[in-house]
């Protein structure tokens, strides 16, 4: 193995398919690993760790949306429903059956996957805008009807569940502060990313991409469209379930208000900004959506004493800036931030002989 | 984007980061999480304005024993994940010592976290679930809680209308039970919080209870719920939502001839109800936590009106709501607790909570019943105040002290729900 891609020859298909082919890439990845697992939690301070946890939650949530929209071409506007199913199943598993958190998380992910398949069934028949309607139905049936009217009343708890301290444990470790939540988040994000990235280059992933690009052609090539679409819904649901199960560890409380339709829409915004059809896009989009809000807060706090009206009269600016950001991205960066990242990377990779 | 655009963006980012300085030492930092653009902004914006005005007043009046309060106020647009990041920012970055929160969404979601962090969280959610110091020691508020409000409303109607109105004389003599249903948004913690309590009170008073009707907070049409309730022929309807939704339900009840009296929780009962529902709001009874904006009498009212005019001259006085006064209530309460904590030399989250627990029959001066906190009971008051709308004006109806009336139940049974 050499440092630079120049001079690497592959003898087997397997070699060609390796993720990290040069020492340089290995070095980068080890550096990333050290930063994410050691330097950041060590030195960033609790506030940034809290922000990172929200970014991680958004990443886990958006992953399923990216899979459905970006890779399988099935537009979804109801993903918060599956996150909610994951969160509720995980919480109920721990509160009512006293399961360990990890077992509960796995059951929650599976339940959310099955639930997602149920609402993915119409995708066998309908496409595009009509599919948006059926996924929206998933949102309202699941969150506004089933969860709020029935599930959240289980055990006489009223609408909001709250988990007593010390409920969420991984082995002997109680997940009770932001640093531990951060580690849980990082591990979950890493595992989910690895799973998704590997799935996408397998037979299944290629079938999804074929369906996205042209479903009739895919069918002519022998892809079982219904099966693979439902599989996509299942995997997306599982990822959503993991996101939901993570969310309760972050907050120790749970109510249907956390999974409103606007959150589904938000997740679609994440992948539009980050880049549709890209795993990097999920991360860039999530960071953008969370960090822009934080940056606006940093802008408002020092300016507020000078312009007191900023806090009240120009609040719409924040919402407007957001809409504007999405518009600008669609106009100037239709491929999202991931494409820009790819270009930057290529520039350095090809330097100084880019042409 | 062009290259210069990226540069500008980068510079703006660096500048904003560079300009977030550390504040001077003798400043007390208080955070506020408000909804000014989201789902509950119909009542949330006025409350947020009130918070800023009240803090300005507190600083002009000498602050906390000479220390000024620096307010960090943020809008979270009723998005719970954003409320969580704001809370963490307030806690870890701005390092505030207390938070003025908003509704049920953020308060209940953050309740386990604030307990763990020992962060006093003074909310605009008056849910009785937040009053048991064993479970939620750091959730505090100034007003009579929702459950006591609900008990107050139903009792006031029973005593002032059912027992006195000649219309019901024949039925009373026959031994008929008054019939009662609840209209509220099932999924919303604010709306569903007092339902158990009001049904308990209805049983104590001997009501016949009908099926609950689910009315969303943003309902524009409640005809199906009113028609479903009409089959039960209720004499009294409880409205557990905020003003907009209550107004819709009142109008539909009026149009469909439900023929029942209406009682409402405090966030569904203000000037806007009369404006929105018109004649349908006539005779509606509601719980009122403090004096209405501009009402004569309470000690602080001239200041409240003065600061509203001074800080937000663009909003006409007639458009200001009781929500401003409620915001003042929470700020004045926190102010008093911080002064006491500071005097005791313990201006920390724990110290402020302990200072709250030294308040005994403390009058806030905004027309609210005096508040008392003890280490075992965080219900601020046992007195519910009810008003009735007559000719489009709010008229005082009744004040009920539940501790006096049901001492046994109040002490032992009713804490925390």
How would you describe this protein?
The complex is a heterodimer of chains A (355) and B (417). Chain A is an all-alpha fold and 355 residues long. Chain A has one domain: Orthogonal Bundle (ABC transporter involved in vitamin B12 uptake, BtuC). In chain A, 70% of the residues lie in helices and 2% in strands. In chain A, the strands form two sheets. In chain A, strands 1-4 form a two-stranded antiparallel sheet. With 417 residues, chain B is an alpha/beta fold. Chain B has two domains: 206 residues, Rossmann fold, CATH 3.40.50.2300; 172 residues, Rossmann fold (3-Layer(aba) Sandwich), CATH 3.40.50. Chain B is built from 16 helices and 13 strands. In chain B, the strands form two sheets. In chain B, strands 6, 7, 8, 9, 10, 11, 12 and 13 form an eight-stranded mixed β-sheet that branches. A five-stranded parallel β-sheet of chain B has the order 2-1-3-4-5, sandwiched between helices. In chain B, strand 1, helix 2 and strand 2 form a beta-alpha-beta unit. In chain B, helix 2 crosses helix 12 and helix 10 packs parallel to helix 11. Chain B starts with a helix and ends in a 5-residue tail after the last helix. About 2% of the residues of chain B have low confidence. The interface between A and B is large, with 53 and 52 residues.
């Amino acid at each position: 193995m050499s440092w630079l891609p120049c001079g690497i020859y592959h003898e087997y298909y397997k070699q060609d398919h390796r993720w990290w082919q040069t020492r340089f890439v290995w070095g980068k990845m080890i550096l990333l690993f050290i930063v994410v697992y050691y330097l950041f939690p060590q030195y960033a301070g609790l506030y940034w760790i809290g922000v990172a946890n929200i970014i991680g939650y958004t990443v886990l949530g958006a992953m399923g949306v990216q899979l459905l929209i970006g890779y399988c071409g099935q537009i979804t506007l109801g993903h918060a429903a599956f996150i909610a199913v994951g969160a509720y199943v995980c919480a109920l598993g721990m509160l009512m059956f006293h399961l360990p958190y990890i077992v509960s998380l796995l059951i929650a992910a599976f339940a959310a996957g099955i639930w997602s398949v149920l609402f993915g069934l119409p995708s066998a028949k309908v496409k595009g805008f009509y599919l948006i309607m059926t996924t929206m139905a998933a949102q309202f049936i699941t969150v506004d009807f089933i969860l709020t009217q029935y599930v959240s009343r289980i055990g006489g708890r009223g609408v909001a569940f709250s988990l007593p301290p010390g409920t969420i444990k991984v082995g002997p470790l109680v997940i009770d502060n932001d640093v531990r939540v951060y580690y849980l988040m990082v591990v979950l994000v890493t595992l989910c990313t690895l799973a998704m990235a590997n799935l996408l280059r397998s037979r299944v992933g290629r079938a999804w991409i074929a369906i996205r690009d042209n479903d009739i052609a895919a069918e002519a090539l022998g892809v079982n469209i219904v099966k693979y679409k439902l599989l996509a819904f299942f995997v997306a649901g599982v990822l959503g379930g993991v996101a939901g199960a993570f969310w309760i560890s972050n907050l120790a409380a749970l109510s249907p208000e956390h999974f409103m339709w606007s959150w589904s829409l938000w997740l679609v915004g994440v992948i539009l900004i980050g880049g549709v059809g890209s795993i990097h896009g999920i991360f860039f989009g999530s960071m953008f959506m969370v960090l822009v809000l934080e940056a606006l807060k940093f802008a408002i706090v020092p300016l507020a004493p000078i312009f007191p009206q900023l806090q009240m009269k120009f609040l719409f600016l924040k919402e407007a800036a957001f809409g504007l950001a999405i518009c600008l991205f669609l106009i100037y960066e239709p491929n999202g931030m991931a494409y820009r990242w790819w270009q930057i990377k290529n520039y350095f990779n090809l330097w100084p002989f880019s042409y | 984007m062009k290259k210069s655009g990226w540069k500008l963006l980068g510079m703006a980012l660096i500048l904003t980061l560079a300009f977030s300085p550390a504040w001077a030492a003798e400043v007390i930092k208080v955070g506020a999480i408000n909804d000014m653009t989201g789902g509950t902004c119909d009542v949330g914006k006025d409350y947020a304005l009130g918070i800023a005005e009240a803090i300005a007043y507190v600083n002009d009046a000498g602050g906390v024993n000479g220390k000024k309060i620096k307010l960090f106020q943020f809008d979270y647009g009723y998005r719970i994940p954003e409320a969580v990041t704001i809370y963490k920012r307030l806690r870890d970055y701005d390092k505030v010592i207390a938070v003025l929160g908003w509704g049920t969404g953020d308060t209940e979601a953050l309740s386990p976290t604030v307990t763990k962090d020992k962060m006093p969280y003074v909310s605009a959610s008056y849910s009785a679930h937040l009053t048991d110091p064993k479970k939620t020691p750091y959730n505090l508020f100034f007003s009579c809680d929702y459950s006591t409000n609900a008990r107050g409303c139903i009792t006031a109607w029973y005593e002032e209308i059912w027992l006195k109105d000649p219309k019901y004389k024949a039925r009373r003599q026959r031994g008929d039970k008054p019939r009662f249903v609840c209209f509220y948004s099932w999924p919303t913690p604010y709306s569903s919080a007092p339902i158990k309590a009001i049904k308990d009170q209805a049983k104590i008073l001997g009501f016949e209870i009908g099926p609950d009707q689910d009315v969303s907070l943003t309902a524009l049409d409640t005809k199906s719920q009113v028609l479903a309730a009409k089959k039960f022929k209720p004499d009294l309807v409880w409205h557990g939502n905020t003003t907009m939704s209550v107004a819709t339900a009142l109008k539909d009840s009026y149009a469909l001839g439900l023929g029942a009296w209406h009682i409402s929780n405090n966030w569904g009962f203000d000037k806007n109800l009369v404006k929105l529902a018109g004649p349908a709001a006539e005779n509606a009874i509601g719980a009122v936590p403090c004096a209405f904006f501009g009402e004569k009498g309470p000690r602080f009212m001239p200041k409240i009106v003065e600061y509203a005019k001074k800080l937000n001259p663009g909003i006409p006085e007639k458009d200001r709501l009781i929500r401003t006064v409620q915001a003042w209530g929470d700020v004045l309460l926190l102010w008093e607790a911080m002064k006491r904590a500071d005097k005791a030399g313990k201006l920390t989250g724990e110290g402020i909570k302990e200072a709250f627990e030294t308040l005994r029959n403390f009058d806030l001066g905004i027309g609210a019943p005096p508040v008392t906190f003890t280490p075992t009971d965080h219900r601020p008051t046992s007195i519910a105040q009810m008003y009735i709308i007559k000719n489009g004006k709010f008229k005082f109806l009744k004040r009920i002290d539940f501790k006096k009336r049901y001492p046994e139940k109040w002490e032992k049974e009713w804490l925390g729900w």
